[in-house]
Design goal:
Elements lengths: L1 H27 L6 H28 L2 H29 L3 H13 L5 H28 L6 H22 L6 H29 L22 H10 L7 H19 L17 H4 L1 H6 L6 H23 L12 E2 L2 E8 L4 E2 L2 E5 L1 E9 L5 E7 L2 E9 L4 E8 L2 E7 L7 E6 L2 H7 L8 H30 L16 H19 L3 H7 L18 H9 L4 H24 L4 H18 L7 H32 L1 H20 L19 H18 L2 H4 L5
Parallel strand pairs: 2-5, 4-10
Antiparallel strand pairs: 1-2, 2-3, 5-8, 6-7, 6-9, 9-10
Helix pairs in contact: 1-4, 1-5, 1-6, 2-3, 2-5, 2-12, 3-5, 3-7, 4-5, 7-8, 7-9, 14-15, 14-18, 14-20, 15-17, 15-19, 15-20, 17-18, 19-20, 19-22, 20-21, 20-22, 21-22
Length: 701
Amino acid sequence: MLVPFLIMLREGIEAALIVGIIASFLRHTGRARLMPAVWAGVFLALGLSLFVGAGLQWMAAEFPQKQQELFEALVGFIAVGMLTGMVFWMRKASRSIKGELQASVDKALSTSGSASWALIGMVFLAVAREGVESVFFLLAIFQQSSGWSAAAGAFLGVALSVLLGVGLYKGGVRINLRQFFRYTGIFILVVAAGLLAGAVRRLHEAGVWNQLQQVVFDSSAVLPEDSPLGVILGGLLGYMHAPVAGEVLAWALYLAVTLVMFFWPVKAAPAVAGAPATPTPAAAAAEVAADEPAPRLGPVVLGSVVVFLLGAAAFWQASTVPRASEVAGSSTSVDGVPVVTIEINQGTCTPNAVTVPAGKVIFRIVNQSQRALEWEILDGVMVLEERENILPGMTQQLSARLVPGNYEMTCGLLNAARGSLTVTTSDAFKAEAAKPPVTAFLGALAEYQVYMLTETASLQEMVDALQQRLAHPLEAGATSPDGYPADALQLAALARGQYQKLAPLAVQYGDLNARIDARAADFALRDKDPAFVGLQRIAAGLQAGEPAEQLLPLATSLQQDVQQLAQRLGDAALQPQSIAAAAAKALERASTLIPGEATTPEQGRAVLQFVYGSWAAANKAQQVLSPVLGNANPALNQQLQDSLAKLRQRIEELGVPADDSQVADMAGQALNPVQCQNLAQALYQSSQSMAKVNAALGLQP
């Protein structure tokens, strides 16, 4: 109670000094009509501070325990930094604070037509600084407090500071600012040192800092930290009855550095122009100001009061969230997750030895002692999980995900006898452990993305070559300079097979897919339909003997569509689950597009190029996922490899070269119905194996 009282008194006095000096200055310069602007600034600042506090409370309440410890450590470090900066600023500026503020008021009021808003802004910023600082300080204190003592102390500190501010305004109280800020500054530095040591402890409890954990001394038998004197010393000096080396070192180093800097001689702050001893423009214009009509500030003040009340309501609601963790009932499981109830008495756990299966476990901690306690799961010096500030007679719940091993439980005081926690392996845990983290897919995503971009560039080159063939047909027997088949029909079949390598991702762009790889059967007039364009339309035209100049516009349009596809694929955000899922759908779709038979060598070559492209895309997906899938589910990884190998064997038996570099120039052959059916079946079987991958890797579809 004492520390929150002193901190809020300190911060409240600063705010009261600012408001009191401004109010006195307004009264003495004949501008008392602007006092509503001062109140508006005060209420707006208080409302903002309360909303900040509510936001911090909500954030902390929703954090998992380790993240909450990190958050509390961060709040502690911010509080230490702001306290230190404020102490040294006040040490430097306390002698001239009144003159500085009066000069600021004078400058604000010198702007005609904006005096009220300038005054509101100045008061708002001055009070908001103190209010937001107070929120950080109090959060750091409240996180280690329970009950109403801290809140009551803070309220009394604010109340006394308000009384001092009113006294300053009335002129009945005189304060030696220099001596006041000197002695309170020293005390606040000691408080900040304790907050710093507590922040270091939070880092340890979050598992971030596990060095220097040797206990320096243990005075719990003489002066426990939860005794009245221990509580006071804990607030004044950061006292802990069993501190570890890291906490003591942080406390001592901070005080050693800051106290030396604090007592180092410095020159007094220079007098500020515009102090009360010098006539100010505001004072000179007092009579004129008195005759000016009072601004209508009622709505502004009312609005600021509403903001304050909303902020107070939000802070009150948020402050109750962490205390709403009490659970009821004595269930042994919730949705299949085991629930273990542990009662803490005077330094013992009941039961004292607990065995649970690996995986997620819910612990219900019931405090049957007479003091607020904390319960922790320890792995040596590391804190795995914990629940703090369990009030007497209250129950709190903790959800932990544990791996097999032997651990300890703290049962009340940290130096009390510890209980044992044994975590055994389980089938559910094995299944859970088989699901790799998202970071395990970073390599697969990068490799697959590069593959897609590389194959897209190859498709663009093939389409460009096809357009050149139609614009400038090569003579019979001529060798193409670009390395692609000289025959335009053979090149069209190769390009369609290349598109199949992109199909897992390309088919999601329905507009482009319908223009690049549509079939005649998809249109009402089939080959004669004007909407029928793309690779298969060009191939059909070449087979029908259409003149090249008639097909050239189709090739030019195809170039534009492929260029747009390349841009979309380059901008796409690839997800881990998309690799296998898209490959499985592409394989299944391809199995339905195999014709009943291919009666000519050209048709057979087109089918085999199509199937080869489908296999190549799926094979790449399997390769990039194999390192992860091989660890998570070796059997499925092998099954997928076998199904794709069988598909590759099928197309090799039908004349597709084993050397991938020779596929572009493979000879065509007619395919009978049995051969086409075998190809479709091999594609479908591969799709079924690929469809099981995401479930095996724990990836959501």
